[in-house]
Design a protein that fits this description.
With 86 residues, this protein is an all-alpha fold. It is 79% helix and 0% strand.
C-alpha cells in the first residue's frame, strides 16, 4: 500500500472517529454546551453538510432524525474498502 493511500486511510479513520464521538456527545445536553463540542462540530460539519443536503433533497428524513452521520460513516467505510483494493 502506498504512503498516500495509507495516509488517506488514516485520515478517514480519524474523521470517522470524530463523527462517532460527535454522535455520542449529541445524546448528552450538557456536553453540547461545551467548547469541546463546538470544536467537534466545526471539524465534522464540513464533512456532514453535503451528505445532509443530499439526503434532504432525496426526501429521506423529515427533520426529526438526522441520518447524515450514519450515511457519512457508511460512505467512509466504503471509501476505505475501495482504497484497500488499490
Amino acid at each position: 500500500m502506498s504512503i498516500v493511500i495509507l495516509a488517506l486511510s488514516r485520515l478517514l479513520d480519524v474523521i470517522s472517529t470524530l463523527i462517532f464521538i460527535r454522535a455520542i456527545c449529541s445524546w448528552f445536553p450538557k456536553i453540547r454546551e461545551t467548547k469541546f463540542f463546538d470544536v467537534l462540530v466545526q471539524i465534522t460539519e464540513p464533512i456532514l453538510m453535503p451528505v445532509r443536503k443530499l439526503l434532504f433533497k432525496m426526501k429521506i428524513g423529515n427533520g426529526i432524525a438526522d441520518f447524515s452521520i450514519i450515511a457519512t460513516y457508511l460512505l467512509i467505510i466504503l471509501i476505505q474498502y475501495l482504497l484497500r483494493l488499490l
